[in-house]
Each structure stands twice: as structure tokens, then as C-alpha cells.
Amino acid sequence: MREIECRASDWLFNAGLVGFVNIVGKENVRMEGQSVFFDADLLDSFEDKYFAYFIEEYEKTLSWYKIVSFKKEMDRYRKDDFASFDEKALEELNNYIANVAKYYLKSASYVSVYPLIDATADPVEWGKNLVKVGALKKKETFDEKRADIIQEVKQVYLKLDQIIAFCNSEKGERYLAAKNVIYTVIKNAWNGVSFLNPQTKEKDTYVDYRGTFIAPAQEYLEIDKINPDYKCSTCNNPIKKEKYNLSFLNQVGFDVAKKSSHVWNFYNDIEICAVCKFIYSCVPAGFTYVHNNGIFINDSVSIDTLHAVNEKIRSAILHDPAQTLTHASPYRALVEAITNQVEDKRHYELADIQVIRYENETYRFNILSKRALNIFRESKNALKALQRCGFKEGNVNVNFYQETVRRLMNNENLFTFIHKAMYLKVTNASNTYYHMGHIGSLLEINTNFLKEIEAMTEISKGRIWHINKCGNEFKKAYPDHKRSGFNYKVLNALKTNNRDAFMDIILNSYSYLGKTVPDFLLESFTSDETFKTVGYAFMVGVNGAIEQEDKDKDGGNDNEK
Q: What is the pLDDT of residue 557?
């Protein structure tokens, strides 16, 4: 039994190593320092483990699951002899027939593997024979036709039984679910070879994967290395001349035959051994993907640490019972994985962490510094409040949480984002899913950021609440019909950083009310950052409600969290 060692290298190879460990199980490898050790026997039937991992992890996102999971609904209505079957249930059934069963059964990727499941079956024809049930004529009601509708439902259930049994069989899951993960997960990391080669003649994706990645690795391990002058560019082991390269990896590799200008002196020396190519094929198992976005934390102090932090990310995104995949976010998972350190006092204080995000078919890189980690810790509760907040701008959905974390990772303040969010709200723009309290949370996070970079140190969270309350008291006294004009002028002054205009507006408004100008205005002259913080905090109060009446009315203290 031969033991193989793979050492940590660049971020992409490290993602492959983490993916390999995820696929075979941590208990089946030995992790020491920067190396992963495993027996060559693990490569036997690895293709089965490979697809089984993706199917299990991403099961509920797969169209295969959408087909077979409807069985639970059918069983529920059959159990009570359709007593609870109502008009809503009929609508859901017809939606399933049209948008799930008929739609997916005719997809080209499914059709290509039907013979591997059962050569005598014809799921395409089954789909064609499915029709919606329970159509009502004008003036007919569901209750009037209920008995006839139930009979139709029972008949269509029999057809669905056949379809679901076919898809949910051992071979059905093996091949149909595998087709799903190929195009929703695996294709994010690599393309153009094996089952993702449009010209491949092999119908069985498992056989294709073994022939492309596993068999060459096993062959490489069994032969004596030749041409010691040629070395793998990743592991530095001897290889045959020009055997394998990185061209199959998305956004990283290139066609060495057509793009020789990409390498020094037009001579390609970026060759890899079969084992490294095999590890690179595991990259999609190292990243965690949701909604076509992926994330990997290259926290490579040790392989064990590298695996552990990405395991937290994966668990937070794919397996948190408190979150649905609809609202799952790589950014939320990232922040929680690196701030939840109650049970695991890690080394995050000691080193910067490389974060790789896969967005819009492109890799994006950030370094999470000690400063950014501190901001996330200080802002943990405020960030949590923003998870489901956002607005729609044209065809783009902007999520508060994602936009905030992205800006903080890029070392940007949030003032422009705060301004846009506040402007949309005070102008009653459509498709805004937040309130002024959420803008207050943005302001709190931004204040933590400014303090961390030492751009503003004099305002506490309690002081901001005091300014909010001053704005709220102003709102109660100021005429409603004048507030839109007031908002426009103040927000414009804040956006242009015009302190004189801001002061004129505030002084004139308080003079109109016959009230004393609040003392907080004096603070707005200390710096640009303080001016904007004071101004937006006041506007949150002017346009929102104060919900924390138990806060310190004297401005709080600097240690308040």
C-alpha cells in the first residue's frame, strides 16, 4: 500500500486539496503541517465518491431533487384520501407538471443518460403525456367540481409515480443528479475536458471522469519517473515532457497551443503531473457555491486549519437549519466563520487571510486584515440585522449585507452606500426592502470602520443614538409637508460635504421652530468623517422611529457594544 503526499501550494491547488479531503473524508487522510498524506487505494472507485459528495452537499438545489421530492406531497394527500386537497394544492400540482416534470424530463443532459438508467424506458414520452388537471370553466368553482378533479388528480399521480420512481432509482439518482452537479457546481471550476468536453463520446460521466483524471494518476504512481529535467510546476516531481497543463481550469489555464504568448519567451513550462491534475479536478469541492457565487478561504497556516475554516464556511452556507438556500450568502458565512471563536481560539490575530470569491465567472481576491476582522467582530450584531435587507436597482438586486462586507474587505467606507439607501427611502422609491433602523445599522458599522482606521475616534455608539433622538424630536415638531424639501437639501449638503450649507439649513429650521439648536452640531466641525456621521445619524432620526428608549440619554459611553 503506497502513501502519497500532497503539499499545500497556490490558492487553487489548496482548494483542490480541501476538496479532496471533503470527498474522501477527513478520517481517511493524515494531515500534518502543510501536507496531506493518503493511501493510493483511495483512488479506487474515487469517481463514485466524487459525484456522491456533490449530490449530497447540493441535493436540495438540484432539478433532480425538485422532481423526486414531490413524492412527499403526493403521499401526504393520499394518506388522508385527499381530504385536505384544496385549490392551492391543485395549483401546486399543475405548476409541478408544467415547470418541473415536463420541463426537466426533456432536457438534453437528462436525455443523454436515460439509456444508462433503463434502456426500455421513455421518460421524454412520459413528459409529453402529462397535462394539467382540474381546468374550470367560467362560473365553475373548485368545490363544485372537486369530486371530478380528485379523480383526475389520482390518475395523474399514477403517471407521476412512474416518473419519480424512475428518477429516484439508484441509477436514476446516480446519473441524473450527477448531470445536475456537473452544470451547477463542477463547471464553475473547470471545463472543456472529460464529461465537459462537448466532443466526448463517453456517455457515462463516471467512466469519463475516471479515464481523464484517476487512471492517469494511478499510472503515474506506478511507473518510474523519466526525464528528471522536467518537473511538475506545482509539486516539483519529475514528469514526462509536456504531459498535462492547466488549460482546463477556468480563468486560470489557457490553451498552450494557441496562446504561447502567455508564457515567458513563448515557451510553456507550466506543466503538471497527473496527480496534481487529479487534485485540481477537486477544486469545485473545495469551494462552496450558492447562487452561482463561490468562496474559498486560503488560510494556509496548516492543512488542518485550511480545511477547518472552509468546513465552517460550507456548513454555514449549505447546512445551517436557520437559513434557507434562498437567503444563503457566502459573505455571511465568511463573517460568521471567522468571528465565531468562542470554542476555538484561533490564530486570526496573527496573520492576514486570503479570501477568494467566484462571482460572475471571475475570481476576485481580498486580504482580510486584522483590522477588517476587528470591524466584523465589533459589528457582528449590526451585520446580522442586515441579512435580508436590500433594494432593486434596474435589474440588479443589491443586498445590504453583501455590499457592506464587500466594501469593508476593500477598505472602503460606507458613506456613499448610506446616502443612496437613505435617498431611496426618503423619496419613497419602489423595491426597497429596509427601514431607517437598517440604515442606522449601516452607520454603526461605518463608525466602527472609521474608528479602526483612526479616521474618527470621538463619537460613541451611544452618542449616535443621542443624535438619532434629536432628529426624531425634530421630526415631531417639524411640519410634514416641509420634510421632503428639508430631506433633499440636507442630503445634498451631506453628499457634497458642504458643512456651511448643512449648518444654514439646520439653523434656519430650528429657528423656524423656535427651538434651541442641539449641542451635537458642534461636533460636525471636527472632521469630514465626523460631519457625515453626525449628519446621517440626525437624518436617520428625522425619517425613522426611535426603538431603543432605554439607551443612555447622555450619549452613552465609548465601551458600549
A: 40
Residues forming beta bridges with residue 430, ordered by sequence position: none
Residue 514 CB neighbour total at 10 angstroms: 7
Q: State phi, psi for 551 to the nearest 5 degrees.
A: -70, 160
Which residues lie closer than 8 Å to 109 by C-beta, 6 or more apart?
A: 179, 182, 183
* Final residue of a structural domain among 133, 156, 178: 178
Instruction: Give me Rg for the CA atoms of the chain.
Output: 30
Q: Is residue 391 domain-shared with residue 309, that is, in the same domain?
A: no
Residues 401, 525 within the same domain: yes
Instruction: Say whether both 328 and 263 belong to one domain.
Output: no
More confident residue, 369 or 302: 302
Model confidence pLDDT, tens digit, residues 263-279: 544 455 678 899 999 99
Residue 484 covered by a domain? yes
Contact 295, 355 (CB under 8 A): yes
When pLDDT is cut at 50, 70 and 90, the band that residue 463 belongs to is confident
If asked whether residues 388 and 512 sit together in one domain, one would say: yes
Residue 271 lies in a domain: yes
- The set of cell numbers assigned to 124 is 421524454
**pLDDT > 90: what percent of the chain?**
56
Question: Cell match 415638531: residue?
Answer: 477
Mark whether 414 and 438 lie in a shared domain. yes
**Separation of alpha carbons 393 and 389, rounded Å:** 13
Are the CB atoms for 498 and 505 separated by under 8 Å?
A: no
Element (H, E) at 391: strand 390-393
SS3 of 366, please? strand
Same domain, 297 and 400: no
**Cell numbers given for 247:** 488549460
Is 54 domain-assigned? no
Percentage of the chain lying above the pLDDT 70 cut: 87
Highest mean pLDDT among 153-157, 430-434, 466-470: 153-157
Q: How far apart are the first and last CA of the chain?
A: 56
For the stretch 359-416, pLDDT in tens is 888 998 888 777 787 888 888 889 889 988 999 988 888 989 889 988 888 888 999 9
| DSSP structural state of residue 129 | T
Domains of the chain: total: 4
Domain boundary among 125, 156, 178: 178
Domain that holds residue 23: 3-44+189-286
Whether residue 220 is contained in a domain is answered as: yes
* C-alpha cell read off for 468: 438619532
Per-residue pLDDT tens over the stretch 71-105: 999 999 999 999 999 999 999 999 999 999 999 99
Which stretch of DSSP H or E encloses residue 355? strand 353-359
**357, containing H or E segment:** strand 353-359
269 and 298 assigned to the same domain:
no
Determine the pLDDT at residue 221. 86
Asked if 293 contacts 320 with a C-beta cutoff of 8 angstroms, the reply is no
268 and 232 belong to one structural domain: yes
Evaluate whether 415 touches 532 at the Cβ level (below 8 Å): yes
Residues 6+ apart with CB under 8 A from 504: none
